[in-house]
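Protein in question kept in full:
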Amino acid sequence: MFRSMIFALALMFSATLEAKAVDEKYLLIELENGTVKIEMLPDVAPKHVEQITTLAKRGDYDGIAFHRVIDGFMAQTGDVEHGKVADDGSVSSRAGTGGSDLGNVEAEFSNLPFDRGVVGMARAQSPNSANSQFFIMFEDGHFLNNNYTVWGRVVDGMELVDNIKRGAGGSGSVTEPDRMVKVTVSAD
């Protein structure tokens, strides 16, 4: 009897974990002109997916700018500390230098290549310095392979990503940038 109770509890716990994983399958980024759907990859980068999911559920990504956008490369966003777009369309000159209060996440490098539509975690020089910022690839960027963490891929709305306002010069810094209006987590 005791064994069957333990087995039943283990099954319930397992089912709860499976349901949670299904509930958190996609990150939905609402832009001004539509929604980008990103399939999260918890089997590849569980700590990064957990961090992104937590920030999205708290509403920390809502209103955050695409502060660094380089044509033919990527669009970077997610600075929840300095990246909020003001009512006049401006963003702090410190956008891109901040993170969240959750702390950094250790690197979870994989064999997944940085192809068009792949979503990776931005970081400082240290491989273990990723926090809240991430980027979406416009084109393949295989020079990033095994140097940055892949945690997702765009499965719908890549044409919207392609239309994100580009930055100027080599830094890709954007004046009056596009923003993530609302970011949520969904099962479908």
